[in-house]
Amino acid sequence: MTTLLTNSVLDRLQRLRIRPAGKRTSRSRGEHLSGKGGTSTEFCDYRDYTPGDDTRFVDWNIFARLHRPYLKQFHKEEERHVVLLIDASASMKFEGKLNLAKPLAAAFGMMGLLNNERVSAYASHQAGDAPDRLPPCRGRASLRTMFQFIESVEGRGDATLDRAVEMLLRHHSGRGVCVIVSDFLTFGDLKRSFNMLYAAGLEPLGVQILSPQEIEPDVTSDLRLVDSETQETLDISSSADLLNLYQEYRHGLENDLALLCRRRSGRFLPVSSVTPVESVLFDQLRRRGWIE
Amino acid sequence: MDRMNWGGFQALSHLWLLSLLAPLVLFYFLKLKRPRAEIPSLVLWRQVLQDHRVNSPFQKFKRNLLLLLQILLLLFLVLAALQPFWRGGPGKHRRLPVLVDCSASMGALDKPGGISRLAEAKRRVREMIDGLSSDQELCLISFDNTPRKLTGFTNNKRLLRDALDQIETADVPSDLEQALRLVQALGRSEPFDEVLLFSDGNFPPRVNFDLSFKLNYQRLSPAGPNLGITALSGQRAATSGWDVFVQIEGSADAEGNAAVELFQDGNSMASERITVARGRAQRMVFQTKGDRAASLRVQLTPDGFDSLAADNTAYLDLPESRPLRVFVPKSLVSYRRALQGIQGIQLFPQETSDEASGAFDLVMSDRPQDMDITARTRLSVGFIPPELQRYIEPGTNGSSVVDWRRDAPVLQHVELADLVVLDQPRYAANAGEGDLENLGYEVLIHGQHGPLLVRKQDSDALRFALLFHSDRSTLPYRVGFPIFVANVVQAALEQAGLAEALANRTGVLPPLTLAPQGRYQIQTPGQTVESVTADDHGIVSGVAAPQAGYYSVLENGALRRRAGASLLSPSETALAGVAQIEFNEQLQVAAATAVVKTDWPLWPALLLVALGVMLVEWWFFQKKPGGWK
């Protein structure tokens, strides 16, 4: 069906679903039970009748025994939206970062579609341009379309994540989760972007993919570093102190991102680009409760 | 600056090298081309570099550490090029002659596998050369039995080192007096105040020299125990063979067992084991046949450590033991009769024949014409040799013996008192003993008016002249007459080399008798070859023999003759070193207790520091930073 995931992974994914930290669903009817009462067939609770209530929901059997009216309540099943945002800038081409980002996004999308959720996908390339977009779709029938969209994503451009989120929200409507697969190495203001996501009813699920060179830079001499996206340069002189500071800042970025997500009912996971997708899905994500 | 007491620079002119700092800094910034490395994003790196800790002064310093280290490296190199030195002592001399003893004892080792005394001296002199400043000059002089000026006063270190490397031990005793005289002569043209002497002190404690400069006597540490051959000679034995005498001595602390082996013409003839007690000599005798000339080698092999190898081998050339050919005319009956009682003599003419031809070893005759017979020893009886006739006149008034040289070998045990002489040889007018001495004669018996017996030793002949006829005296009737004749025979034996053979000592070989005007090559024990030419008499003299061993005389590559030279010096074998040298006018010089303080060159240390800086630079910037904690 797709080259992004193996059949065994696809088979295991069919039995899994995304487990958001909060219940963020759309008003549209769906398969996710809302906290509010609804009109589904699943009984939820009783409450005292108050004048004005719809008498159709009075439990007449209880009224006959107790001579007091009680109102039956039912769960409300709402639709949840799964938004996939793939950072497809040039920086993601390094050391298989995009090669891990695409299967992960596909896995999240597949879990959404198989659980009757609305899934839309965005791939950001060039700053200022609207990201490539897969319109919201749902159902098993949309799997192929989603896989084709994700397979066609190529790394290029200098898109920044904050700009990509802004462009995403211009087209998006509905509550749910926003799975952001990126290296999160952006000069933009991610706090604003995450606030915007939160305000739009999207729970941010950040997956940071860094290459081994980014996790443990092998800098052994004086170097002129070139940014793959902007072609800007930066001269550094190798020293242990410098590398220690780098690690300090990298861990600081991870903590900031985790805090940004957590404060917005989201989650954050940093992974290495060389980690197998099976390990990320069925080990790390499942162990952290992202999927169940 | 280089006059400061604590030190200075030997090559201050190299200060211009500091100008290299400018191109160094220039090229550093021009050449600083960093390799480009494309990374996904500069986000983190920008944040890192904007950190105040990266921009702290120390971190800025570290960023330019490469340049600073290179500047430091250049400064150290320039400083090393200036050749700084630490002044060794306050008393520095501008000119300093250095005497290095290279006699045989300087080849003695201090311990098994150790270094020789000469090597120790050369090490210390080399240190001086290394620390030589530009205002100092050394003059290297080596000396054994003769001094050699190796260099003039110079501060050319390469020249001095080369000259120092050329110094090798010679198997001869040292002669300090000659060396000091050379230094004294040197001081007339190039004055100096002090002379440095490196020696083990193996020379006589008294030196006949008027010391006119300060002598710094650097006595080297004593060598280890040593045993050696100090005497080797052959005595004619009664059985027409030779008795070979060997004497073994040792240094003051030497004792132990040793093997002594005698080789004749390369073949081992005899071997003995000896035990040498401390301070005692060991003597032994070997017997050899005398039927032909032989070349003997005596090898001493101590059981324990022996510090000096040069005295462990001695060489002795023995001539063929043959009868002494003596010519005495039948008219000298008394002499012929006295000779008949002496063994090992062939007397000519024989009683039954008048035939007497060929060369003789001894001619005794009262006929002047017989003095033309070829012989190494002659005794003229009863007439005055022609060359003395100007100074001595014959007379017939009779004479008597006034005095005689009792220590002369030919007159040993000969009592001449009351000898009656009818002849009267007397000095001519205005002539005296001095005239005879000018001609090379020595008066052995003084008569009332003139000499009665004179002796003359030429290079190849010995001449006695009895200026009165013994038949006209009571000499033949004296007990001492046969003794006198026997002494003359003994002198003739010695002159002919038939009585005793002494081993040649190193230094100069004895005259070699070869073909007149012949051209030869002398091959030394060190396999060097020296060309020599024999004189009109076929004598080759003055052949230097500084090393113990065989000296081969080659003619067109063919071996003509071989002569051995041996150290045979009790003083060199004893390895004794004097702690104090006494000069004329009771001037004494004691061995210095402190070694010579040389200037301490700092440039090697600076080069090492520069190397260290370079290694730090390499390590700091090339080593993986993970290792830099």
Low-confidence stretches of chain A: none
Look at the structure and give the CATH class of the largest domain in chain B.
Alpha Beta
How many domains of chain A? The number is: 2
Mean pLDDT of chain B: 87
Level-2 CATH architecture of the largest domain in chain A? 3-Layer(aba) Sandwich
CATH fold category name of the largest domain in chain B: Rossmann fold
Proportion in β-strands of chain A: 25-35%
Q: What is the H/E order of chain A?
A: HEHEEHEEHHEHEHEEHEH
Structural class of chain A, by secondary structure, is alpha/beta
- How are the strands ordered across the major sheet of chain B? 17-16-18-19-26-25-24-21-22
- What's the name of the CATH homologous superfamily of the largest domain in chain B? Class I glutamine amidotransferase (GATase) domain
Give, in spatial order, the strands making up the sheet with the most strands of chain A: 5-4-3-6-7-10
Shape of chain A: elongated
User: Biggest sheet of chain A, open or closed, and with what strands and sense?
Assistant: 6 strands, mixed
Return the CATH class of the largest domain in chain A: Alpha Beta
How many domains in all of chain B? 5
**What is the distance, rounded to the nearest whole angstrom, between the alpha carbons of the first and last residues of chain A?**
23 Å
* Quaternary status: heterodimer
Q: What distance lies between the first and last C-alpha atoms of chain B, to the nearest angstrom? A: 44 Å
Give a written overview of the molecule.
The complex is a heterodimer of chains A (292) and B (629). Helix content of chain A is 34%, strand content 29%. In chain A, helix 6 (190-199) links the parallel strand 6 and strand 7. In chain A, the strands form three sheets. A six-stranded mixed β-sheet of chain A has the order 5-4-3-6-7-10, with helices on both faces. Chain A has a two-stranded antiparallel sheet with strand order 1-2. A two-stranded antiparallel sheet of chain A has the order 8-9. Chain A has helices spanning 7-13, 60-66, 97-114, 143-151, 161-171, 190-199, 212-215, 240-262, 277-287, and strands at residues 26-48, 70-79, 81-87, 118-124, 132-137, 176-182, 202-210, 223-227, 233-236, 267-272. Chain A folds into two domains: 7-24 and 80-287, von Willebrand factor, type A domain (Rossmann fold), CATH 3.40.50.410; 30-78, no CATH class. Chain B is of the alpha+beta class and 629 residues long. Chain B has five domains: 7-86 and 612-627, no CATH class; 95-223 and 575-599, Rossmann fold, CATH 3.40.50.410; 227-321 and 567-573, Immunoglobulins (Immunoglobulin-like), CATH 2.60.40; 324-497, 3-Layer(aba) Sandwich (Rossmann fold), CATH 3.40.50; 507-562, no CATH class. In chain B, 22% of the residues lie in helices and 31% in strands. In chain B, the strands form ten sheets. Chain B has a nine-stranded mixed β-sheet. A five-stranded mixed β-sheet of chain B has the order 6-5-4-7-8. In chain B, strand 25 (451-457) and strand 26 form a beta hairpin. In chain B, helix 1 runs antiparallel to helix 4 (65-81) and helix 5 (117-130) runs antiparallel to helix 6. Chain B starts with 6 loop residues before the first strand and ends in a 7-residue tail after the last helix.
